[in-house]
Every structure is written in structure tokens, then in C-alpha cells.
Fold this sequence. Notes:
The complex is a heterotrimer of chains A (288), B (368) and C (583).
Chain A: H1 11-14, H2 20-39, H3 49-63, H4 65-68, E1 75-76, E2 82-84, H5 91-100, H6 122-135, H7 144-147, H8 154-171, H9 173-176, E3 183-184, E4 190-191, H10 199-208, H11 223-238, H12 252-275
Antiparallel strand pairs in A: 1-2, 3-4
Helix pairs in contact in A: 3-6, 5-6, 5-10, 8-11, 10-11
Chain B: H1 34-37, H2 39-69, E1 78-79, E2 82-83, H3 84-110, E3 117-120, H4 128-145, H5 151-171, H6 195-204, E4 209-213, E5 230-235, H7 252-262, E6 264-268, H8 277-282, E7 287-291, E8 303-305, E9 310-312, E10 319-321, E11 327-330, E12 342-344, E13 350-352
Antiparallel strand pairs in B: 1-2, 4-5, 4-13, 5-6, 6-7, 8-9, 9-10, 10-11, 12-13
Helix pairs in contact in B: 2-3
Chain C: H1 24-36, H2 38-45, E1 49-50, H3 58-77, E2 86-88, E3 100-102, H4 103-114, H5 118-145, H6 154-176, H7 181-195, H8 201-209, H9 218-248, E4 262-267, H10 268-293, H11 299-302, H12 321-329, E5 335-337, E6 340-342, H13 344-372, H14 388-408, H15 410-417, H16 421-460, E7 462-469, E8 475-480, H17 484-491, H18 515-529, H19 538-553
Amino acid sequence: MRLLNRPLGRLSRHRRGPLAGLLVVLVGLLLTGGLYAVLSPASAQDDSSAAQIKQGRELFLVGCSFCHGTNGQGVKTLDGNQIGPPLAGVGAAAVDFQVGTGRMPATQPGPQIPQKEPNYTADEIAALAAYVASLGPGPAIPNPSDYSLDGLSAEQRQEAIVRGGQIFLTNCTACHNFEGSGGGMPKGGYAPRIRGVSPKYIFEAMLTGPQAMDNFSNGNLSVKEKRDIIAYLQSLEDSPEYGGFGMGGIGPVSEGMFAWVVGIGSLVGVAIWIAAKTARSSKQKAES
Amino acid sequence: MSSDNLPEKTPGERAVATEEPTPDPGLPAHEWRPTDVSPRAERRAERQVAGLFGLAILGSIGFIVSYVVFGVGDNPDTIANLGASNLMLGLCLAVTLLGMGAGMIQWARKLMGDHEIVEMRHTASSSQEDRQAAVAILQTGLEESGLARRPLIRNTLLAAGGVLGVLPIIMLRDLGPLPGDKLDHTLWDLNTWTPEMQAWWQTQNRTVQRVVRDVVGTPIKVTDLVVGDLVNAEPEVMFASDDTTQEALVEGTDLLVAKSKAAVVLHRMLPGDIVSTQTRNCSVYGIVCYSKICTHVGCPISLNERTTHHLLCPCHQSTFDLTDSGRVLFGPAARALPQLELTVDDEGYLAAKGDFTEPVGPSFWERG
Amino acid sequence: MPLDTSKIARTNRSTAATPKKPNKAGAVATWADDRLSVGTLTRVFARKVFPDHWSFMLGEIALWSFVVLLLTGTFLTLWFTPSMSESAYQGSYTQLRGVPMSDAYASTLHISFDVRGGLLMRQMHHWSAMLFIAAMFAHMMRTFVTGAFRKPRELNWVIGSMLLLLGILEGFAGYSLPDDLLSGTGLRIADGLIKATPVVGTYMSFFLFGGEFPGDVVIPRLYILHVLLIPGLLLALVGLHMLLLVFHKHTQWAGPGRTEKNVVGFPMLPVYAAKAGGYFFMVFGVTALMSAVLAINPIWKYGPYDPSKVTAGSQPDWYMGIAEGLLRIMPNWETHIWGATISWNVLFPGEIAPFLLFGMVICWPFLEQWVTGDKGEHHLLQRPRNAPTRTAFLAAMMAEYGLLWAAGGNDILATHFHWSLNSITYFMRAAVFLVPPIVFYVTRRWCISLQRADTDRLLHGYETGIIMRSPDGGYSERHLPISEASAYTLTARPRDEIHEIESEVDENGVPAPGSRAGRVRAKLSRAMFADNVQNPTAEELEEARHHAEHTHELEADLDHPAAGHEFDDHALRDADEIPLRHH
């Protein structure tokens, strides 16, 4: 039919053709989609680093800037106490650790932020890490080859594990306990349990010194030494519990508790059994 | 043991109201157990006891089998990630022992005679006659020995016995050397070194001893450390070896003794964080070095809170402030942590200027 | 001549033992008897009577644990090397291969990983050591709270206290033998405690360790202490403890037929031998079970001792926990006078407090006897409620012990409950002073109220649960008198006598010697017995019974339970032959 080709006075009858509505909807959809495609943020599949940093910045603004500032400069209270520390220079490794283990974003203040379910997907974490790394040079996310024993002979592996054990006992057990079960720190802080933690996070924790933990930079404990520690921890995971259940792996305190509760408790129970009145019958026995 | 006539009151027993409000009804009448009156119950109990003993036999057999089957050593067997040998030997032994024990107890409870029996007590004291006789015997003995009449013999005997008793104490003198001033110096003091260590030092051509990483023994450059690093460190001579014999200069017991005083921690902080003059003077570029040995009772400390620079000892929670001369902030330690004065040697490595200026570790009387 | 058989337990067989015709066993017995009077010994000891109660078996746990310790310990000595000479490890535990360690540590690793049953024996040895000392504590508390330490058993109490002390020292020496990181840290702390002793501290330290800590002789020295000297002392004292027990005979609870002059129970042969022997196997078996499934002291994870290494959660074994707690909460007091240092922060927890505590434990029977003036022999036990002050004292000491224990594990508490380490310490510093008096007061009043409840039952009978409604509408619960046996059990105790001073001066006005002490004693005696509820007199009991009977005359007969209450005590019987409950 003819569009918009009417003499004056007869407009009202032919103002809208039967398919006009359909066409308007189609045009509207095309316009909206096109604008969206042009104007919306780049999708996660786009791995150009500039785009990743941009995505990271947007995620940062939403989830992290409240405590860490819109430019990661840190936020202080009026009294000068810190709400969130500045992130320039903490490096991608710190972000990968903190966000990957779910510690960040923190849900409530306290002496120490606990580990929780991670809030972000792996891609989002990578984006955040890229953004924070762009704020200032800092430790990078380690390569898996940094902390794996692949490519070593059996003897070299064993040497690495033994050396790692000695380094672990010298540097780490004072806070984290002899088998990584964790320990107490002042004023409500604690060194968390490190058993069953992925090697990448252990490496990053050593590298970046999360929260109150010291740094063990690559100048302090070299990459090889960190690898040895991780190998030792892995060997603890792979070894059987030779003597039985470990009762938490915290040493004599739980041993004493079990000795009293299980040991003395069961033996007192046995004593009560031994001395208890036994069943009686109302029948009489003819004395023989 | 004592006389048959039991006295109404034991010696020293005070008069109590002899009128018990209620009289003693005597032992209750004996009630029979089902196993006493019912042959069925009796046989059942017998089977239970025999079954328990049988379980013990099975446990023993299981123990022997487990001993043979489950191996230890290089490739130990495991069950559900537990050591198999320990688990199975232990469980079988437990079954054996518990079976034996439960069997014996069940036998006693169910089948052995359970009439209560009365036995009369006797006073703990001996009878008057015995006492008098004893006194008489002792007096006779004393008389016949003549000790009372011969003070010279008595006194010389006592003196001889007293001196004899001192001899074992004297024999213990060589348990150990006298402390001297050993507790006042550590391996950081080159004057305490053996001739071999001195000879090695001559070959090094340096004036100040480096601080090296523990376990690996590598020296530390200032640029190695970033702010917040904590390094567990030792004096470099601990990792040095004789050039000719390749033997370690400090090893075995000497190494442990040296470690118990010379172990240190290095911590790098922002120079602006340092509070006290002493700490500032002993530090380089914000790197401070403190004794690792707690001044309370000597545990090694390396729990550092990076954000506050507070060092916590895991044993009794003494807390020291690394920015402020190692001052005690909390806990039972009474003295500040000794600080080691750092310097940088010609090649850029961290080194110690000398020994600590006070004894490290727990307090002692002569410490001053 | 007639034999006096009044001392010998009556047999429970109707015929006397008659000698059978001679056989092999008889020949052996005759041979032994010809030389050792075995017959007399058997006659005197084999039917010795032991009263039966579960709380009397706590000491047995300690005794049998000691036997287990001897057996497992002997096994361990066959492989253990008590030497501190160092060598690089080449055994099966791969995580430590090549690490320099003492022979003591290496041989312990060898026992754990290369000797079949070795780890089991090690764990059984350690678990039974824990049980040994725990059982001694439990036994001591039972003895204390039932007054079994009173004359003539004070000496046995003193011997028991020494056994406890020796057991603790033995345990400390024992777990230090493997020379691992955790126990070496404990030795380091012990060395710090020794060094703090005024004047002779450093000398004692150098003499113990053969020089500076850690030296190379302390492990062999602890070894000989642990396998020879202290076990010898323990064996001798345990023997003496048992001998006194047999000589004095065991105490017993008050009850029908039981008096201060007899002991009622079961004979040694066969019942007690079976029960005690069976208990030995149970103790052994429980230890084996725990060692099978619960790992204790995994020294391979600690590594060999190194003075520059330490683990978080460094605690000693539980029985040293209170010393550890004291060390942790003690404020950091140290005085420096004339060039000498006195470290109160270490001296008090390490040397003064244990001495005081132990001294108090040993002296208690004599202290109590002085306050109460009670010089009579006691063979009937007191129910804890009937000695409220003593029971309250024990409760307060237990509260103190528990608080110090918790203080010793303050870092474990901090991590598990998410508390602040510092706050726990501050709390404990106050609690160890404030909590025990509160516990004392509460326990004492609780005991007295239990005594009042007992007197109530005695005078007014027990509650039957049957509610009666009187014709004019009032409700009351029917009480029935308790049985003769129960009434006797409740009243078979002497009345407490408060020590009064007759006069402080004699007729000429001369003050009596020791009157100050006498005044103190009177005050303490009054404090000890104040508010205690004494036995009612015979008249009071009569009056209460009369009153009860009079009340019951007004109510229905009582020879059967009310309808629907036949099975109130859960026994299945015919409804016709239901006796009322025994109370």
C-alpha cells in the first residue's frame, strides 16, 4: 500500500497502515540493539588487556571502592584509622589471592577478614587483578611452573621436599603450626589453616603478605624456596596419617582433652559397669 | 596382727552421740541373680563369657596376621589414609584385651558367687602390750649399745655420717662446667670463635660478619628486601665450611648451642615507622635486626604483625615492639628484645657491626 | 587347740575345703609352703574383702596404666638410643632424609616407621602416661572429697601425693626423650625456669645440661631418670601404697550392715581378682584402642629440635598445663637489685607456685585434723555433701586448676573461638582470683541444701507422687517413710564438733600457751562446720514419724499403690504381688 501519500482531509482514515505497527517495532528493536552493541562495556571474552583493565575498573568501582577508594588510594576514617589500605603496588598477585580465596570483598570489619566463598568468577578476578596491577607495579600472579615440581628427578623432588620442610619449620610454623593447622596472633588476629589450600594461593600469600602476615618477597625466600615449601605442604597432604586421626593437629591440648574425655570417661564407664548392681530375681535358690 | 578384743573406741576418737537415731538393720537379705536360679540364664551367661574369650582369641589371631601382612618402612600400607599397620595391630590388640577383660568381668558379675562377706577390722595401732614391749626392746637395745653412755662415740659417729653424706654431692661437681661469662656472648662476637673459624675468617678478607638467611645460608642485599619482609637469619659463620676439609665449621651440638643465642630476625619497615633513637641508629634503610630468642624463657620468636611491627612469641605471648627498641608491650617477658646493630658491607650485603650489647635470652641472676 | 576363726571371712560355701588326694599341683604347693609359709599367706590374704563401688576403681586405672607403661616402655627401650650425637637421617621417613638429627630422634623415627608395632607401642606408652596421671588426679579427688585420707590413712595420702609428683616428672622426662621440636621447646622453657633461680640458677642450668643449653648430655640423663630412678621410686611407693591399703583395709560407704569396725564386700579370690584382673585388661584395651585410631605426639611432623625453630600451639602435655597457664598470665615483674636480677615473672609460676600447691596437697590431712580436732579412726566414707567446706574447697581448687589449664591453651582458645588473645590473658588474670571464691561459696551452699533435703527425706519420708485431695478440697502429696536401710545410711555419721576454747587464761590469769593458734583454730573450726546439718536426734525422728503416722491414719491404706501406679518403678510384675518401692 501507499505510505504517506494522501490528499489533505483524508489523513485520519489512512494514518496507519495495517503493518505500520509491526514496522515501528522492528525499527525500535534494531535501534536499541545497535545502540546497546555500540555503547555497552566490552564483554569478558574480549582479552585485550586494556579492555580487561577497564572491566576491572568497573568491577572495582562497584565492589571495592567503598573501602579502597575510587582510585585504590585507600580510605581513612576521620581519626586517621584505615578502613581499606591503598592498593597501589600490591600487585596482581595480592588481588588474585584476596579475591580468589573470598577474603575480599570484606563483608564486615574486624581484627581479621576471614576466608569465605569467592564472590567473583575467574575472569572477573583476572580483570580486577589487571586493574589493580595497573595502579602501580607489584608482584605478579605466579606461573604454575614457579611452584610445581614437574621436570625434576625423583631425587631432586625429595631434596626439594626435605629442604622445604626445613624452611617451613624455620619461617612458617611459628604462626601456622607444625602441620599448618593455624595459630593465634595478637588482638583477635590469627594465622589461618593452610592445609588443603591451592599451591597458587600459598605462593601468593607468601609473596604479598596478606593482612598482618609478613611479606616473604622473592628476595627474602626465593621462588625455588617457595616452591620447596609448597612441595613439602603437598607431601603432608599426600602422606597417610600414620598413627591415626590427628584430632585437629594442634598438639597436646587436644591430646589432653581426648585423654580425659575419651580415656578416663570410658574407663569410668567400665568401672560403673563392674560395680553396678546386677539383675536380681525374685526366685529363690535351693541351697545345695 | 592385733588383739582380738576390739576396743569400743579407737584411740583418739572423740565421744559422739552413741544414740544413733536409727539402729543398724544389718546386711540386707541376699537376692539371687537370674543366673543363680535359672539354668537357662546361667548357660546364656556362660556362653557370653566364652564368646568374649573367643573374641579375644580371634583378636590375637588378627594381630598376628596383621603383623605379617601390613608392612612399614619405605612403602607403608595404608587403609583409608591411615597407617594400616598401626591401625590393624591396634584394633586387633584392643579386641583381644577388651574381650579378655569383659569376659572376666562378666564372669565375675554373672556367675561367680556374689554373697557379700563381712571381715572385721582391727585398729591400726598396736596393742598396749606390744607398745610397751617395743619400748622395752628399744631401750634394751640402746642400753646394750652403750650409745647414751658414750657421747664421744655418738658425736664422732654423727660427724662421720654427716661428712659422708657430703661426698655424693661433691661427686656431682663435674656434671657441667661453670657458667663463667658464656651467657654474655654469642657467635656474633668474633672473639668467641674457635681457631678454625678464625682461620676461615682470615681467608674472607672482610671486617664485618654478614647476616645470612637461615637454612639456605645466602647473604642478603638491602635491595633484596621490600618493606614488610621478615627474614629468619643467622650469622654467616654458621654456614661456613673449612676450605680444605670441607667440614662445617659449626656443627652438631655447637651449632645448636650457637643457634640458641645467635638466631636473629630481620624486618624491613618504612624508616618513618621507627620510633626510638636506638632502633634508628641500629637500622639501615628501615631494616632492623633483633634477637630471635625471647627474653622470657627462651623460645624463638618469629610471629610478626607486619602492619603494627609487633613481634609475638608463640610460647607465652610476650609481644615486643620492633619500632621501639624491642620494648615489651604485653605478656610475661620483663626485658626488651636485644637489638643487633646492622651495617652494610663493601659488597652491599647486610652485616652486623658486632655482638649484642646485652645477654640474649632468659634472665638470670648475674645478668645485672 | 581351738582355732580362732573370728578374723577370717565366713565362707559362702556350705562345706569346708577338704584336701584331695595328692597331685602335681599339690606337690608344688607343698614344696613352696615348706619354704615360704604360702599356706598362711593364702589363708590371710586370699579371702580379703574389698567393698564394691565404682569410685574405688579410679586408683586401679592408675595402677594398671602404670603396668601398661612398664610393659610398653620396656619394648621401647629395646630400640631407643638415648644419645644426642648427630648424624644425617637415612631412614624411611622421606621428608626428613638427610636432615641432621640426634640419635635419640632418629631412633624414635626408626621405632615409628621401621619397627612393626613400634608406633603402636609408642602411642600406647604416651596415651597410658596421660591416663596414669589423669587417673591419679581423679583418684585423689575422690579420696579427698570422701574424707578417705583421714586417720589412719594420712600416710597413704602423702605417698599418693608423691606418686602424683613423680608421675608428672616422669612424664615430662619421657616426652622429652625423643628430642623433637615440641619437647625441646619444653626443655628450653624448663631451662629458662632453672636459670631464673636466684644465685644458683645458671650453675644449676649448666650442671643439668652439661654446659650451655642444649648441650649433648641432657637426653641420656633424662633417660636414666626416666627408665631407672623414677620408675624405681614409683614401684616402691606404689608397693607401699598397696601394702597400706591391705593393712588398713579399704574404706567403705555407710549402709546397712556396714560399720566403722567391719568391711563388707567381695572376697579377693575369686571375685575381686577377676574384677581387678578384668579391669587391667580393659585399661590395656582402651589404651590400645585409642592408640589404634588417635595419633598422639607425631614427632615426625615436628622435626628434630632446633633452638631457632618453634611451632604455634607449643604446649606441654596436659599435666603441666597449669604451670604453662601461670607462665602465660603472670605479669612481667622483675627486680634488679645490686647487680642481680630476680625474675618474679618466671620464678613464681615455675618454682614458687608449684611448691606451694604441692605443699598444700601434702599437708591437707594434717591441716584438717588440726582444725577439726578429730583424732579418731575413720573407715566409713563421708558423702561429699556432709563435708560442705571440704567439698567446696576442692571445687574451688578445681576451678582454679581449670582456669589455669585454659590459660595455658589461650592461643588455641583464641583461634577456635575467635577471641582476642590479649583479652583472654587479661580475663584470666582476674578470674584466677575472683572465680574460686565464688565457686567455693556456691558449692558450700549447694552441699548444705542437699543435706537439708536429706534430712527432709529422713524426717518426712519420700514423695510418692500420689496426690490426695482431702474432703474439704485441699491437695497434699502423700509421703511414705523411707526404708530402714536408707534411714540408717543417712544417719550413720558422727556429729561435727566445733572446737571451742575453754578459757584463754587459767585461774591465775596466765594466758594459755598457743592461745593465738587456738583462737585461729576455733575460728576455722567454726567456719568449717557452720551451717552444716547434723543428724536429727532420736527424739526428733520419733516425733516426725509419729506425726507422719498420725497423718496417715486419716488417709486410706497404703499397702498397695493407687490404681494406675502399679508399675511406677518400671518393673514387670503381677499386679497382685506388688510391693511398694524401696527407698
